[in-house]
Amino acid sequence: MAEHNSIGQKGEQLAADVLTQKGYKILETNWRLGHLEIDIIAANRKEIVFAEVKTRTSTFAGTPEEAVDATKRRHMVTAANAYVKYHHDTRNIRFDIIGILMNKSGEIEEIRHLENAFHPALKTIHSSSYSGQWHWHHRK
Fold it and tell me: What ranges do the domains of the chain cover?
């Protein structure tokens, strides 16, 4: 396995631990819809969280959170629409970014959890926004 893949997997596990410690139940990890992916889907009684995890060993190209660009955000919204439609979930929706900075030895230097990191361009997420076929893989 490539080093960047193992760093990414370690970061996603750390992010899931952060959400669990905050009282969220992890519903899905690496949930896919076609070419779209959401790193972590977690929930509590009130809301469902769609989280993107970025793990880096340097801030040379910016912070991990800055790597979540407008295209990635649009893809997350599209995938979230599909997820809530399929699961008939009526909880409030939130999009988070969890940025993790590690050193070259794999030791954690910083974890930043940005709750409500962004809001979709549309004011609401609604069930009629996705009409394609369902293709997903889930791992818990």
Answer: 3-117
Q: Which long-range contacts (CB under 8 A, 24 or more apart) does 62-69 make?
A: 63/99, 63/101, 63/112, 64/99, 64/100, 64/101, 64/112, 65/97, 65/99, 65/112, 65/114, 65/117, 68/97, 68/117, 68/118
User: Which residues make beta-bridge pairs with 95?
Assistant: 50, 118
Q: What is the pTM of this model?
A: 0.82
pLDDT above 70 as % of the chain: 83
For domain 3-117, give its CATH number from 3.90.950.20, 3.40.50.720, 3.40.1350.10, 3.30.1360.120: 3.40.1350.10
